[in-house]
Design goal:
The protein is α+β, with helices and mostly antiparallel strands. It has a single domain, classed as Alpha-Beta Plaits (2-Layer Sandwich), CATH 3.30.70. Helices cover 25% and strands 37% of the residues. Helix 1 runs antiparallel to helix 2. The radius of gyration is 13 Å and the shape is globular.
């Protein structure tokens, strides 16, 4: 995607709460984003939530939003808050951030 025209892309930040850590959420989010051809990052936050940034074509971003509301089978998603963000022109892949 590094050479793709990103002028029609949208970027979203999602904060996901519930039983979303220690259930494979980051791995699952990476897999879903890669299947959709999205770029971004996912990481666990110290408050127990998961934060996901993702970008791509609007219809694919909407599909990812639906997926995040459900989460992987072991997760129990209680709340998802979405924020519109500015597209990151330099982002070329989806990555899980580990500390």
């Amino acid at each position: 995607m590094s050479y793709e025209d990103k002028s029609d892309f949208v970027r979203v930040r999602a904060l996901i709460a519930g039983r979303v850590q220690h259930v494979g959420f980051r791995y699952w989010a990476c897999e879903q984003a890669e299947r959709l051809g999205l770029t971004g990052t996912v990481e666990n936050l110290s408050d127990g939530r998961v934060e996901v940034f993702f970008q791509g074509k609007p219809e694919l971003v909407e599909e990812m939003k639906k997926k995040l509301k459900r989460g992987p089978s072991m997760a129990l998603v209680r709340q998802v808050i979405f924020y519109n963000e500015r597209v990151n022109e330099n982002e070329t892949y989806f990555n899980s951030i580990y500390y």
